[in-house]
Automatic annotation (TrEMBL):
SUPFAM superfamilies: lambda repressor-like DNA-binding domains. It comes from the Bacteria. InterPro entries: Cro/C1-type_HTH, Lambda_DNA-bd_dom_sf. Transmembrane segments: none annotated. It holds the Pfam family HTH_3. Signal peptide: none annotated. This is Helix-turn-helix transcriptional regulator. Residues 42-85 form the HTH cro/C1-type domain. One of its GO terms (molecular function) is DNA binding.
Length: 99
């Protein structure tokens, strides 16, 4: 971590560590952060539903290995697939917010 005594909030820390919005480093950080959030939401929903990765894959027409990759933040996921996982797998709807 870079040392900077002028950091007073989280956004400043992210900028120091990963650059300004729009830079390659910052874009990579933002993408990885979003994938982490999605993976944690999927894991939490699956555990709350008390189903295994195999059961979720069977309910949604995917493979267990794909569910595992998503939960470990290792794969890209299409929005249509994410919606299918939550709607068919957990009977939940997804809401999107654009900032």
């Amino acid at each position: 971590m870079k040392k900077d005594n002028n950091i007073s909030n989280f956004n400043q820390l992210i900028e120091v560590e990963h650059g300004k919005i729009g830079t390659e480093s910052r874009n990579t950080y933002e993408q990885n952060s979003q994938m982490f959030i999605i993976s944690e939401m999927l894991k939490d929903a699956r555990k709350e539903a008390k189903i295994t990765q195999v059961q979720l894959a069977e309910k949604t027409g995917t493979k267990k290995s794909y569910i595992s990759r998503i939960e470990n933040g290792k794969g890209n996921i299409q929005l249509s697939t994410l919606i299918r996982l939550f709607e068919l797998g957990f009977n939940k709807r997804i809401g999107l917010t654009f900032l």
